[in-house]
Amino acid sequence: MNDLSSVAVDGTAVRTGLFIDGEWQPSASGATFPVYDPATERLIAEVAAANADDARRALDAAHRAQKSWRKTSPRERAELLRRTFEIIQSRSDEFAAVLTAEMGKPLGESLGEVAYGNEFMRWFSEQAAHVEGTFGQNPAGQTNIIVTREPVGPSLMITPWNFPLAMGTRKVGAALAAGCPVIIKPAALTPLTMALFVEALEEAGVPAGVVNLIPSDRASVISSSLMSDARLRKVSFTGSTGVGSTLLAQAAEHVQNSSMELGGNGPFVVLSDADVEAAVEGAITAKFRNGGQSCVAANRIIVHRDVAERFTEAFVQRVEALRMGDGRGDGTDVGPVIDGKQRDRIATLVDDAVAGGATVRVGGFVPAGAGSFYPPTVLTGVDPGSEISREEIFGPVATIAVADSDEQAIEMANDTPFGLVAFVFSQGLDRAFWAAGELEAGMIGVNRGLVSDAAAPFGGIKASGLGREGGAFGIEEYLETKYVALNR
Ligand code: SIN
User: Fold this and answer.
1) With 60 as the cut, is the pLDDT of residue 289 above it?
2) CA 292/CA 299 separation, integer angstroms
3) Ligand 1 centre distance from Cα of residue 296 (Å)
4) DSSP letter (8 states) at residue 202
5) Which of 13, 197, 254, 367 gets the most CB atoms within 10 Å of its CB?
6) Quick one: pLDDT at residue 4?
7) Is 296 in the pocket of ligand 1 (CB under 6 A)?
């Protein structure tokens, strides 16, 4: 039976139970699900699998905890988050080792994610005590208008596998700072890092019921059972647009507040006046961070014809030098993709693009041997209408298309239902700002291949989602506005 037990993952003990109402515990059914190391495809843990009864118990606990948690002082919440930040910082190596073991990203990148993810805890510890309201007078002078902010209430966080810590801290940090208790449903492929995070919150002294963790391999059972209960007041999801639409439809029944960080199809635009070397470095970051498994990855590289050859040759050379391997060792730039299913999906997208006329300049094959590896790949001559240009690749495959003018490059960039991120390279300030204004996305990287920052609002427009996470906007997602009319 899986109860208070833990498992050793690369030397770090990780809890494998559910965490409900301040207690680590087995699932109601005793069921578990397996977690694999993508670099070896070996089993590394069996984790308790929550079912609908567990989900209900977690909501009972969160609902009870809400009464007192919302009344805690902002300072108390800030200090809890700050203590958690310090615990995570002191255990960075352990978090990174577990992250690499379950998700596959190279250790250096895992350390980067721990620093990035933990920054949300520090950021929201600083935001907790800065929630403001307003005080005014109505025009007729009869009433004072007092506007205050109040926590939304029990919140469900459904987090993805690609950034198992950072996508949790970005949601949970904001919710706790605002005074909302949370129920976390981590991705079934990567539940272990989240267990470490919850353990850090527990050690920091989070009250019982304020944080609940219900891993499960049956995500829709958990979300449907929680969202059909009107006591749940918020759902925050990071994942595909398809699942996001389903959750929004479910949220309609009880008008639950919703934040959706959904799919992207990020264009990376190199304008005619770009610094080509800088653009190549930016593209390496934007494409190969996390092995391309990010919704803010550059999905389509679009280069002005004047610089296309120079850019492509230099980019291909840089990609040829990237080393793929088990991320535990030194000198790995790109780890495995998350699992065999994802590797096969990427391989099909590449094969179809090649059948449609694209040219493989680097990579483009499934290597023999264990582990769900797909090599860093560059395709040129990619048809903008092809599947690989329309779909989110979510892997280490770069596609390059050529535009005849800067205007056409922007037009090609915007030719997608998504609008999460766009990157543009130009040496002219006017040109860069013109492009940033024209690009249809919630986030624009100008002359850089990375936009993610705890202090900035992360989120998209169009089919890429609703709401923003991080920055001063992040806490707003967990606050309601209350207006009090005071008779003068
Ligand atoms: C994501 O891929 O969902 C988020 C990546 C980031 O925060 O940088």
Assistant:
1) yes
2) 8
3) 6
4) H
5) 197
6) 53
7) yes
